[in-house]
Amino acid sequence: MTPAHPTEAPTPPRALRVLIVDDSPEDAEIYTRLLRQATAHPLSCTSEELGEDGLDALRRDPPDCVLLDYNLPDMTGLEFLSVAGTQTPIILMTGVGDEEIAVNAMNAGAQDYIVKGRLKAHELLRTVERAIEKHRLQRDLTDSRLQMQTVLDSVGVSVLSLGTDLNLEYLNEAARTLLHLPPGTPAHLREHAPWLYAAPFDEAYRMVLATGGRMTFETRHPEQPVWLDVRVNRSAGGLSISLTDVTQRRLEEERLRLLESVVVNAREAVVIAEAQPTHPPGPRVVYVNEAFTDMTGYAPEEIVGLTPRILQGPASDRAALDRIRDGLARWDSISETVLNYRKDGTPFWVQLSITPVADRSGWFTHWVSVQRDVTAEVKREQHEQARRDILEMAAEGRPPEDVLTAICRLVSLDLQTLPVTAWIRNGDLLTLLASEQTDRAQLRDLAHAHVDRIDRVDLSRDQGATVRAVNSRELVVVENIHAPGVQLKDGVVALLEENAVQAMWVYPILPSRAEERPLGVISIFPREARRPTPAELVALADAAGLATLILERSAALGEMQRLALHDSLTGLPNRPLYLELLTQAIHATSRDHARVAVGLLDLDRFKTINDTLGHTAGDRLLVQVARRLTGTFRPTDTIARMGGDEFTFILPFSSDPAVFQERIAKHLHACFDRPFDLNGQEVFVSASLGLAFTPDHGRDPEQLLSAADLAMYHAKRTGTHVATYQPDLLRQDTAVISLEADLYRAQERGELELFHQPIVHAQTRALVGTEALIRWHHPRLGLVSPAQFIPLAESTGLILTIGAWVLRQACMHLAEWHRTHPHLSVSVNLSPRQFWQPDLIGTVRDALEVSGIPPEALILEITEGVLMDIPDAEATLRALRDLGVRLALDDFGTGYSSLSYLRRFPLTSLKIDRSFMDGVTGDDQGTPENVVRAVMLLAHALGLSVTSEGVENEAQANFIRSVNGELLQGYLFSRPLPVQDLTDTFLR
């Protein structure tokens, strides 16, 4: 019995030895850790910080691979390469990608070049392994070239001539050397090389001698490991024999046979192509192995002679193909992952490794491409990335239709690009919400082209696969839409046939609570009649689970938004929700190339109403404003309350901005053209609206709101009610802010001065009084126009203190004049803002008491807006009349002039606005004259005296006198004058 051999333990794998030359120990540690993460085999890593130390380590104990930093304290990586040579594979590493460094490194002998910041464990290990294998192949190739060179250099044909008796007659030096014969020509070859007379030589000699032909064969030297190519020819004197040492060729053929066996049986596809041309149409294929045929479906005879471009298709990455073309042009080794197509049109991903092959002269003759099918890996990465993107979109709060579109694309990716749609249930209505197609609008247009609007399914009325999937809560498979008994919604079959669809699968999106109805469905439309595969069922279940997560999260967020993102008073969206809706609107307009206007509206004098009538009335006003705004603007417009009395708008539009602004102005007028009812008190309220447009004024929500805010303040200052942002508004606003700050300090600095314009009797031209007019002497700007700073004082509330100062100063000036001219009166303008002041009566009383002038000498001028907009204006005016002061209606005819308030309010006089005097020339039949005459008759009929402003010439003065006008005021008599100048001119 043969004794059994003991079982030998398997030889453990040799450790991978890596030398790291890097002046950063931390980086060296990172590379070591990455390599250990990526490999399950033993690993030995050593490191050196200096290039010289690295070279010593390399000479002392060459590793399997060197990771070399480009920047070393004592030398560069290129200098290291020049000294190290090519005995060990070296990978050059840099902090940044630099093509020039990469080229120089490869030319200097590096096997590869990588960028530090992009390192991943498996990529680093693959780079090291590829460098080691590449170095081994290059070394083997070099060895083979040297061997071939030796063979070619040593080729020498040994020639012998034998007579018909087979005795030696001639041999050359090559033959003498081959046969180890002594110098001279031996007479008896049989004695020195008897094997030349044994088989198969003897048989060849006899056959050639007998037939007169020739014979060729190869045989092995009986005494030496040498193979000879033997050629025996009949010659005139006998035989001519040539012996050629083909030992090297036989060895190379054996090696090539072994290599071919490796290539033929390799699992990776191998393609060998000619070196030229590198430009289109590209090098032609000369060889493919069996793995290539298995991978692509192309037999060798179908691909040889063509270019590898036959594998490219419509979705092949042009950038990757361009990089391959550039690499071929530079004769570089290439590594790329590209999308190719099999013979049957099926796409697949392949990892290409292409290397140029040169002959012994260094001339590149071929390309060798090793190709590995990485479709599963790429699809897995794409699936994981798509899933991460979906979860990130959900976390960012993107609209459900965007997230569901991404889920549809994920399903389409897993199911080999089958058409996929997502439908969402709302009550009994299922609506098409998403598709893997980029353009959902195009999909809906296609659905709308059919009579029955197949983008909607009524679960209570319709029938078909979708309804069955919802009601059964299970997958419904229509394997063939043309099969007998198949029932689908009207119009669906026609649409599916138009798009070459043969089957339909409907997967329900089930909620997390079993008692609730499905949230919707995912529909898949295969282009061939079939059922889903197990893998496809898993993909559908995964997608439905994701959709459930997204929809339930969206519903929860919607409920939270309903509770937390709406204004509790008006029910409108509040600031956070408005900003979110604005962001979505901006994204939508970016995709659809539409435009949107951002509006910011502020109520005029709201604080005064709130302070005067109370917060309850203010809240009631805000509710009514919100109701009017939502009832006036379009349903597609978004209106929100930002806080206080500020409302914001999102207004999509496609018309010309000027036309759009005009339409918005009409809407605004419709909202505020009638009074608001505040607990039985009618109040007229106006508003100012600023507009900013995308993309003209930006695409950032805060930027647009800021622009609209500036436009709103411009509208408020100019009284235009609606204004569009202009770039120079910021500069204007800065100037206004500066002027506003100066106005706060103007009174305490004594910069304000009271001027007076004389008022004379129309018949006698005698001075009867003055109108007090404020002026501001700005230390830097000089005299500032009241038209510029009075609106500022109104908006900031400074008009209250300034108005009180004007009233007191005017009364004090009149008291001084009364010492010599007790018949004079003084007119003082009251701001509407002062009428909202609760202590206006007290302020007037104090001014009268301090100055000591009789109440009837003080005339308070008010505008028509006071009569219309102030809720308790009538009561305030009657209280002032009770003090004894007179009341004049200023600028009559410029507003909503009405007999009703002329009769209703306790007025004593009115002033005709200067605009009516512009056209008066004294013509009795002139239109301006008729208007002025009518006003005079109206006023006199109501017992009111009339002061005519803006009288600039005698014709105007004479006409007013002729129609019985009482008082005149204008440049004909005097411009507004400082107190002393008026005293010197009129009261001396």
From TrEMBL:
Gene3D superfamilies on file: 3.30.450.40, 3.30.70.270, 3.40.50.2300, EAL domain (3.20.20.450), PAS domain (3.30.450.20)
Organism: Deinococcus aquiradiocola
Residues the record lists as 4-aspartylphosphate modifications: D69
Record PROSITE patterns: EAL, GGDEF, PAC, PAS, RESPONSE_REGULATORY
PAS domain location: 252-305
Domain PAC: 332-386
Residues annotated as domain EAL: 736-988
Annotated ranges, domain Response regulatory: 17-131
GO biological process: phosphorelay signal transduction system
Keyword tags: Kinase, Phosphoprotein, Transferase
Name of the protein: Diguanylate cyclase
Species lineage: Bacteria, Thermotogati, Deinococcota, Deinococci, Deinococcales
Gene Ontology molecular functions: kinase activity
A Pfam short name: Response_reg
Boundaries of every GGDEF domain copy: 594-727
UniProt KW Repressor keyword: no
CDD domains for this protein: EAL (cd01948), GGDEF (cd01949), PAS (cd00130), REC (cd00156)
